[in-house]
Amino acid sequence: MASIMLTAMPFAGHLRPVRAVAAELVRRGHDVRVYTGRPYAGDVEAVGAGAVPWQRAPDLDERDLAATFPRMRERKGFRQVLVNLQDLFLGTAPAQAADLQAAYEAEPWDLLAGDPMALGTRFAAERLGCRWVTVSPIAVWLPGKGIPPTGLGLTPARGAVGRVRDAVLGAVSGVGTRLLTREYQRTRRAVGLAPDGETFATMWFSPRLVVAAGSPALDYPRDDLPPHIRFVGDLTDDGAPAPAAALPPWWDDVLRAQVPVVHVTQGTANVDPRDLILPALAALADEDVLVVVGTGHRTAPLPGPLPANARVASMVPYPALLPRTAVMITNGGYGGVLQALRHDVPLVVAGGDLDKPEIAARLGWHGAGVDLRTGTPRPAAVAAAYRRVAGDPAYRVAAARLGADLRARGGARAAADLLEAHLP
What we know:
By secondary structure, the protein is α/β, with parallel strands linked by helices. The chain is 39% helix and 13% strand.
């Protein structure tokens, strides 16, 4: 038995994949702890792991980050990305490092395995000199030859004009990433660490091992990924059947549906239904479908009367829903996308900010869905995209190809194997 500390940013989309890995390690007899926000302590303890809540690092509500980080108020797009990086990820890293150092001094671990966005993991590991690897619930898509600049939702260039486009945009984006790299180096100095040679693209990840959700098949074609990056498929769903108590009262409507079931979700962090949920409901109101909306952690009901063909719940267990789903309409959260593909479900993606434009672009490029190229589409655009995906079986074929690759990679079991191989 080994002692293993996992870290996860206190977001549902980060905690759930890390918790799946924790659960598998617990099943193998390891002593597992998870350092994350206090609101997720119960989720961690439910799988038999110990919860180590943020102490010096501020507890936050992922539905209202501006309450803790005021500069995020009314920010979307690139401005949101910039403030997220400065205030949330880099800004909380020193406090995370202090929390982890205190936890280690109280009870040492054999291996530290961290969420890349919890940058305090790297700082604590370097200060303690302990073994450190990355468990990444987010997409690991590094810059490379023939890959367009990350963050803009671009597909690979075609011809001389495309190469010029990538060169120009790469130079512009390079200015911004160099500024953030310098801020990372300043943060290192603030926690007593010397500057290192990491860049904005690499500073998040362990140089020893990156256990990454997803698959190279989801990226653009490339042959330059370092060998220590190991993809393990979907970490968010073990395939267990949903308990009856977790199913919404209208679930029989799904079981009896004689029309396609369309799932609509904005994930767990983007909570304004005007972005995607309401346009999608309007787009599908007159379609011969059953629309199943998952509102995430939303507490207020959706405004206005629902269309007759719509059903809504805060959470709908994906092992029960996705095998019955014809199309998913989503804002592109990585965990939800991986689960849809794992069940061979094609997608319509409205990726507005953070990593979502990149996810949407890759799905469109691989033919597994339609990229709406905005996070706030109009109903007509959603309707046209749905009809396109539902009417062309090539989208489901492409989704099934990616799904087969994800299923073959082993998920949480493969992740646990890799972590065990790095124990002392």
